[in-house]
Amino acid sequence: MFIDGKWTNAHNQETFASYNPANAELLGEVPSGGKDDALAAIDSASKAFPSWSSLTAYQRSKFLIDAHRLMMESQQEIAEIMTQEQGKPIRAAMNEVQYAADFLIWFAEEAKRVYGRTIPSSRSDQRFLVLHQPVGVVGAITPWNYPVSMITRKVAPALAAGCTIVVKPAEATPLCAKAVFQIFEKASFPPGVVNLVTAENPKPIGEMFINDARIRKITFTGSTKIGKMLAEGAGRGLKRISLELGGHAPFIVCADADPVHAAKGLSLVKFLNSGQACISPNRIYVHAQQEKAFLDELKSRVSKLKAGPGLEQDSKIVPLINQQALEKVETQVQDALKKGAELISGGERIRDDSCADGFFYAPTILSRVTPEMLIYREETFGPVAPVIIYQDEDDLLEMANDTHYGLASYVYTQNLKSAMRLFEGLDFGIVGINDINPTSAAAPFGGIKDSGIGREGALEGIYEYLETKLGGFSI
Ligand code: ADP
To answer: Does 138 share its domain with 278?
Structure first.
């Protein structure tokens, strides 16, 4: 753990292990922190807050610029740790480190653009001045599927705004978090500005974030269930909260879409990180006219996806994070097949050669999926593409919006009118139009309904960590 600028063990000296999901190999041990450690981290962040928040934006920015440079210098090394611990292909891990570093430089720049404003008053002797100030100490909880970028997506805007922070990373990927904090250490942030508490049991750390009055903001990426629990706790203390939760993305192929382009897009975004992404398509609506062309192209592309450990250069299908994740995928596929889905490809665990000891599941296409199936409603977080064949475009919005989630959605059409109708009518925070990668440090990421509250990245990202203060001056 990294507390008050020093690497430390847990108070009770406990540790826990991190394993490679591709082959169950032990990768290392890290401290398993508890309440005492969270308290020490909050103490240190709280002590560091007055001086960090008093620096000029230019001074804070300088640290983030250094961290960006150092992270890019270690891109390969961090990517290798990520591939071993989380599983994603090494090229995807390299891209993720780049994405993570993008947040550092983006918010280094945004730090200098936290403009206030003056407001005309109806009284000639009065002036209004609006100022933005950091909310205070932040508690951050991050997930395992994007274990490096989800840390910088929270830390960079918090520090840019003048907040200090305590990060509790996912228990499946503590070594990735450690690698990020080694970069922060090298960037010489003042002690206490950034703190890391690793823990095998996240519950007591979450409770400390909720119960310690000095934590003024909780930021969380993970499941809807835990997000709601944290929001309830934060509500009791009237703490600010940002939540990036689950999704159940529709992927719409209209009657006038280019089916080859759409199938190519789907094969790229669906199997990214073996489907372990909150923006992964989970309901693929294909117009009946496009069924054959789309499925033929998709099947051909999926048949070329090679499964194997992420460090092997051409691996595209990597292991799921653990046994439980594998079982969830198996259950959803079995349920769909029992209820009449058609298996186009995959549909089973992979146990060949280099996949024998890992949690590999074959890239799977199901067609004729219906609303009665579990996969139509529940997030899969695995490499399964469930296709629904529809007849009438008038029903599309109702079908696509029929979910309690609202994160990402995708539309393929060559008609501007349909594109605009769906863009405006989809109840999702993100809509990709003929585009499978609508994410960037410069763009606001986030969902509505059960997918969360608040936005990360973009100019919106920094305001999540700022309060608004009004000055009324009588002159
Ligand atoms: P997933 O099921 O995808 O792992 P979780 O929401 O359980 O999603 O995990 C996301 C993050 O939330 C992880 O860092 C995890 O340790 C943390 N977490 C899980 N349960 C709790 C809890 N009760 N209190 C605080 N954090 C938690």
So the answer is: no
Tell me the residue range of the domain where 194 lies: 2-245+449-474
The domain that holds 143 is classified in CATH as 3.40.605.10
- The catalytic residue positions are 244, 278
Q: How many CA atoms lie within 13 A of 434 on its CB side?
A: 13
> For residue 223, which atom of ligand 1 is closest to its CA?
6
User: Sign of dihedral through CA atoms 456, 461, 462, 464?
Assistant: negative
Q: How far is the CA of 226 from the centre of ligand 1 (A)?
A: 6
Element (H, E) at 96: helix 90-110
Q: Is residue 444, in this structure, part of any structural domain at all?
A: no
Task: Report the predicted TM-score, pTM, of the whole model to 2 decimal places.
Answer: 0.98
Is the C-beta atom of 32 inside 6 A of ligand 1?
no
CA of 370 to the centre of ligand 1 (A): 30
Task: Pick the residue whose CA is nearest to atom 7 on ligand 1.
Answer: 223
Convert the pLDDT of each residue in 272-321 to its tens digit.
999 999 999 999 999 999 999 999 999 999 999 999 999 998 999 999 99
CA distance 349 to 358: 10
Look at the chain and report how many structural domains it folds into. Answer: 2
Sequence letter at residue 53: S
Q: Under DSSP, is residue 317 helix (H, G, I), strand (E, B) or coil?
A: strand
Does residue 119 belong to any structural domain of this protein?
yes
Shared domain for 241 and 268, answered yes or no, is no
